[in-house]
Design goal:
The protein is α/β, with parallel strands linked by helices. It is built from ten helices and 13 strands. Helix 1 (12-22) runs parallel beside helix 6 (170-194) and helix 5 (123-129) runs antiparallel to helix 9 (260-273).
Amino acid sequence: MTYRLGIAGSTKQTVMMAATMAADPRFEISFTLSPSPRPIGRKRELQKNPLQVWSEKKQIPAVVLEQKILPELRSELEQFGAIDLLLVVDFGYLIPKWLLDYPKIAPLNIHPSALPKWRGSSPGQFVLLHQKLVDDSANSAITLMVMDQALDQGPVIAQLPFVVKTDWTQGDYYQHAFNLLAPQLADLVADFATGKLLAQVQPLESPTSIARRLVKTDSFVAFENLRKLMEKSEKLVSPPTEQASLLTEMLGDQKLCPTREAQIQLIHNACRAFAPWPGLWTLVKTNQGEKRLKILSCHLEENRLVLDEVQSEGKEKCLYREYKNAILN
């Protein structure tokens, strides 16, 4: 039997999963769903997302969406015929019930965390942020699940565990997770479709907070805190309350960061977790006024934080010691 499939998503990970399914004779991709072209870069030129580009290259009908899914979409999809499964990967849209009910068998989702941990749109970033700060933070997984209307709470079809390396950025995390699932995806979906593999209900409660969508301000850290963590000292830093951010909140969380060592570890984690976006950043007072400074890389050394590579706004990246000598002295 050949199963007819719809793919919803936008990223290179979506393309990886779509290509895997397209290469298997048990599946036929009827259409793809993805966001309409968005303005990219300084020139704000419209650019198609990777899934739309791939679909057009493969001559698969590509349906593009605006800000939300409207009821009119149903009649547009019906022209391609009924589907057995809908596979959602990095989609970013709130999916209405009618679309969840549209496939004959089930809507499926791939979520790169060890559900019920880290439900939400940024699981890899939150795993890396908490690395070495909480128990079992070295382990994660990628999950194939049945979608429902609750956030990442649908029944789990399969979960593939992996160990999170301490030098990974968010890109490394997601690449490893999807590379792990790709060779097995078609077999897992086929086994679920035939009833050979049964989905298991998740626990209702998650042991973690929601890995919510990140914004630029989440990755801000006060320069005064950075400066203190770069000194040889035993004192904890106290984040300024007037400059709130996700990172500031975590830095001041006595349960998560009860020691100076934990605070230093968190900043090191953040440098990797937020790379390449939104990027770890701070504001520095210079003789030319206050300037944004990106922390591109750092390391730990004798209970202190060492900044390696940085980039000041409007400037090329450089070593922190060069920046310090030129700007701060």
